[in-house]
TrEMBL record, chain A:
Protein name: Carbohydrate ABC transporter membrane protein 2 (CUT1 family)
Family label: Belongs to the binding-protein-dependent transport system permease family.
Organism from which the protein derives: Kribbella jejuensis
Pfam families the record matches: BPD_transp_1 (PF00528)
CDD domains, A to Z: TM_PBP2
Domain ABC transmembrane type-1: 73-262
InterPro entries recorded: MetI-like (IPR000515), MetI-like_sf (IPR035906)
Source organism, top-level taxon: Bacteria
Membrane disposition: Multi-pass membrane protein
GO BP annotations listed: transmembrane transport
GO cellular component: plasma membrane
Main location: membrane
Keywords associated with the record: Cell membrane, Membrane, Transmembrane, Transmembrane helix, Transport
From TrEMBL, chain B:
InterPro entries: ABC_transporter_permease, MetI-like, MetI-like_sf
Native source organism of the sequence: Kribbella jejuensis
Superkingdom classification of source: Bacteria
Organism classification: Bacteria, Bacillati, Actinomycetota, Actinomycetes, Propionibacteriales
Compositional bias annotation for Low complexity: 1-13
Membrane topology: Multi-pass membrane protein
Protein name: Carbohydrate ABC transporter membrane protein 1 (CUT1 family)
Amino acid sequence: MAESSKRRVRHPIAHLVLCVGAIFMVGPFLWQLSTSLQTFGESVSVPPTFVPHSLQWSNLSTVFGALPFGRELLNTTAMTIARTVGQVLFSALAGFAFARMRFRGQGVLFAVFLSVTMVPYQVFLLPQYQIMQRLGLLNTLVALFLPGMFSAFGTFLLRQFFRQLPLEIEEAARIDGANIGQIFWRIMLPMAAPGMIALGVLVVIWSWNDLLWPLVVNSEPRQMPVSAGLASLQGQYTTNFPVLMAGSLVASLPVIVVFVVFQRQLMSGIAFSGVKG
Amino acid sequence: MTSSGTATAPAEPVAEEMVRRRRPRPPTQDSGWWAALLLLPAAAGLAIFEIWPTFQTIYYSFTSWGAFGGHVWSGLENYRTLIADSDVFHAIVNTAIISAISMLAVPLSIVVAALMSLPGMRGVTIYRTLYFLPVVTLPAAVALTWKYLFNGDYGLINWLLSKVGVDGPHWLSDPATAIFAISIVGVWGSIGYNMVIFLSGIHGIPLDYYEAAELDGAGRVSQFFHITVPLLTPSIFFVTVITVINSLQAFDLVYLMVGQTSPAITRTETLVYLFYQRGFAEHDGGYAAAVGVLLLLATLILTAAQFRLQRRWVHYG
């Protein structure tokens, strides 16, 4: 901790405890980074190598040569974008209807949405797999994102956000003769942007990290996302730790960047909904 | 990590701005058609991909699947097999062990959140980022990294242990230790998430409680035990239930750190691992569906327990 020249650091013991904890949290990442730039010999030496003697960038080219790794990164990116756009858009539409409209059967429908959020997603997998099979979509990019474009949880979250928006603006617009569509697109949607970003970041993280569904529908390496790609990389390079660490690093970096950029919205979304990140 | 994001519990009692007065909904004309239009994509998608599949899975759990995809009604057969299956028993015991060890993350994250909430504390944003990093990181990458750390011959962990005179085991291939290795990664990966929940819980505790305690001469430690912890009970309950549900769902770490061929697999497999293995590796859909129903029941029971217990035990201040 850098001491400011004017004041000494407050709570030194608290900082000490938090720093020790932080080392435990970040240590594995540093180890991964260091190993990804080592030679194989360095990675299996005793005592362990903390700093590589010379940076082995060749581990990266090995990863990209071993798998259709670039292609898998693109698959993951496409899957993530499609799921995120779908969930945020459809949840915003439905969330707005639940928050701001009155219609018959509203209570029942909302109860159904809410019940769906409590079902563990493995319960959907077998029938979802069959749907993909019947549509002839197994081992395609579409299979990776199609069922993941809809979210009862997202609807619930955005309904909460819409409910918090002040009514006055909406009423003023209505008096000026705007119809519901205009009110939604021009006024409500921009105002609900923080909620939509929070949901969007959550969905980006879930989609990027998803492993089980891709394992189920896409066994073809060129159609896999990078999470499943890492599993097959491990199959090929069982103990070549530098290669495995280089792959792990590249595969996890994009979502870490998204997290660092949008962490405030993400944290507020999590605190707000109490949902697994 | 769930991909469809199962929100497993009601929203936390978070900061005041969340708990506004309920406003009456604006009476809008011709809402019916508009509402139908806005709800259609989400409702149709959920009906096709989540609601109908839930009923299908329940139905499949009463059927027996042939090797070539057909299935016939078989009543309670799968459930009988399930009850007698030692793997299911292992999965439940393993889940209990993972849950129990993962609970260590709860007191740790309360302390972390309380320290970060000290008045005038600096660097909170940086700490928060570092502690939360494991939560968002690709589980597959996390699994590979920890697998290397736990490696019996070349792993950093055993080298550190050897420095203090302990001869470390082959963590992941030894049936006696593999589950502890996985649970440690679980603790590491959940502290950041719990921290965020507890930070928002602490944020909701009125400052005058602390000021009053200060006037009465209570120190920081005493304030922590007499104000912070009791008033955090709703969050503690919530996090506890989430911890159990996540242990129930553990898959990625088991699949990638231990795997099918390891002698340690029966001591580490979880219900979701079993579900994947039976349903998709061995194509026994009926049995996998029954495991899925078991998972569903367990989750619902935990969520219901959370509601009831919260009503009975919790201080809301």
